[in-house]
Design goal:
Blueprint: E1 4-8, E2 12-13, H1 28-33, E3 41-45, H2 62-73, H3 78-83, E4 87-95, E5 105-108, H4 112-123, E6 131-133, E7 136-138, E8 140-150
Parallel strand pairs: 2-3
Antiparallel strand pairs: 1-8, 3-8, 4-5, 4-8, 6-7
């Protein structure tokens, strides 16, 4: 019987033009132990252009808290597991000035069932601490790749 592994990648990249390379999948033991590499996400301002974001958005509990909450919210769809469907869903959303999550969009789809699970998991997240420039909260676009894999 196959065991399910869901790897979440979330690496904060503060350069608008840089993109992180794919990270290796994380095992459930690595997720539980906290022995994981930095995850992947890209921040992009969606409001006015600021010379520098002083405080980037942060999830309560940091990267570990974000991974933990996503891990709790994601259940591999039975149909996709049975069919052996794997891949990386890429989601994008705006972290609003109050830290809430705006509409979630799918930039790269894997399968309708997997996509729905990924979107739902993000919608269930707590509010972020918003990004700030000049002490003023601002909106930022957040891109989150979520890798679904079976072992």
């Amino acid at each position: 019987m196959k065991t399910t592994t869901i790897a979440l990648f979330l690496l904060f990249s503060f350069s608008l033009k840089s993109f992180a390379q794919s990270q290796p999948l994380l095992t459930p033991k690595e997720l539980e132990s906290g022995n994981y590499q930095t995850l992947t996400a890209y921040l992009m301002p969606t409001d006015e252009a600021y010379p520098e974001i002083e405080d980037n958005p942060m999830y309560p509990g940091g990267e570990a808290g974000l991974m933990q909450d996503l891990g709790k919210n994601i259940k591999y769809p039975k149909k996709a597991r049975k069919q052996g469907i794997t891949g990386q869903v890429v989601l994008t959303f705006v972290i609003e000035k109050d830290g809430s999550i705006g509409p979630v969009e799918i930039k790269k789809s894997v399968h309708p069932d997997i996509d729905a699970v990924a979107v739902n998991a993000v919608k269930q997240l707590k509010r972020f601490y918003p990004a700030k420039a000049g002490g003023v909260p601002l909106r930022v676009r957040y891109t989150l790749p979520l890798r679904f894999a079976l072992e």
